[in-house]
Amino acid sequence: KISIITGGSEGIGFGIAEALAKLGSHVYLVARNITKLEKAASSIRDNRGKADYFEGDITDFNKMKQIIDSIYESQGRLDIFVNNAGAWKLQSIETPAGELREIRHFLRDAPTDITEYLVRKFKETDQELKILTVVSQAGLKFMPGNLGYGSAKMGLAASMLVLQGELDE
Question: Please, what is the average pLDDT of the chain?
Answer without folding.
Answer: 93
